[in-house]
Structures are given as structure tokens and as C-alpha cells.
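Exercise: predict the fold of this chain.
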Amino acid sequence: MGNIILETRGLTKHYGGVQALEDANFTLHAGEHVAVVGDNGAGKSTFVRQITGVEQRTSGQIFFDGQEVNYAGPLEAREAGIETVFQTLALADDLDVPSNLFLGRELFKLRLGPFSWLDRRAMRDRTLEALKTTAVKIPNVDNPIRNMSGGQRQCVAIARTAAFASKLVIMDEPTAALGVQETAQVENIIRGLKERGIPMILISHNLRQVFDLVDRIVVFRRGRIVASLKREETDGNDIVSYITGVKGNSEGAYA
């Protein structure tokens, strides 16, 4: 197993009197792909929002790439090397595909304070290269995002993440709204990340997908991590037992 790339210790998030996340201890090793599963409201997305700085944790510690971190927002997390596909996608509807891929990291021909010129050709060329690498098919990259189907929008967000992936990728239900063909595309992107040695956290309700793609499965229930199991040492029935509470904390194997 490689070095630890991400670790949380006692990560906790309360919304008033609601305990959305409680004492989450989690590790992710270099090159490892881990699935985070659980029922709706189990704390999965809350967990990701704390890691990426979308929300500030109530208590606990986060360590990334060997350093304790406290990101003020997702931009800081991205600059540190964490690329995330959120369920909301975070795309700009009025911009085309290259502008969305390079949103916040635009390429310039010249930068002179307010007098700056974008290098639109370079961004378009790199966008086409990224789409080719990830096998994402967009008929016209110059179209505004708002004119695209839900599946195309999702694929653009995922292609953006894969193109700039450096140290860690997080995907929150990346195929929930996709058809069979688009889902297969996304799963191939995830396999490509694995081949490149880029660690990933995958939040998914699709257990078939989980068992096809990851090394380890972490189960959340009522805001707590109740199991961390190697894929080859468990099965779907076992995972469902943890999700539903038939099995509990005492039986979880933590890593």
C-alpha cells in the first residue's frame, strides 16, 4: 500500500442540533480508489464538503499530502491538487466547453492588469485533447453549456476533472443521471485515472459500479463510518447489511 495521501481524524459536522457527520476517521493511500457508500442522508456528501472546503467542519483534522490543511473554499482545495465533480456540476451555463474546462485557470496570450488577452485557441486545442483522452464526445465544443443534454454536461464536468487531475479526484454520484453509454464512458475515465496512479474517492449508490472500479469500500450510516472493507473480501449483501444497520460499528474493519 502506498503512502497516505488523505487522512481525516475525528471529522465532525453539526448543523445546529443535527449531527450530519460524527467522528469520521478515514485514510486514502496513494493510487488507491475508494468508494464511499450509504443511504441518503448518511453523511457521504457532507464528508466531501468538509474535505474540499465547501463547508467548514465543526471539529476534527484533515491531512492532505502529508500536511494538515484547512481550506477556506473549493478553489484552495483545487489549487492544492484536489479535483472534484460535485452533484451540482459547478458549470457556467452561458460559457462554452473550453471556457468551462479552464474556468478559474484561463490561459492568456498577454497579461497586463486589466488589459489581458485570453489564448482561446490554446484552450480550445487543449479541450479537444482532453475530450479525446477521456473519450467524451461533444459534437460542438463552442456551444454554450445550457444547450447541452444533462449527460453531456455531466461528461464535461468529469472531463474537466480528469484533465486537470493531479493529486486526488473526488466524484460525487458521477453517473446518477446518465444513460448506459455515458455511464460506460465515465467508468472508462475512472479506469484511466487508476492507470495513471491518481487516487480517487467515488460516492455511488451503484454497487455494481463500486465493485467494478474500486479497491476498498467505506460505508457511512447516520453520519458515521461503520465499515471499511477491501473489495475482494466482501460482497453486495455484506455492504447492504452495513448500510441498513444489520451489521454495525463493531464489525467494521478500518483502514
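Check your answer against the key: The longest strand covers residues 4-15.
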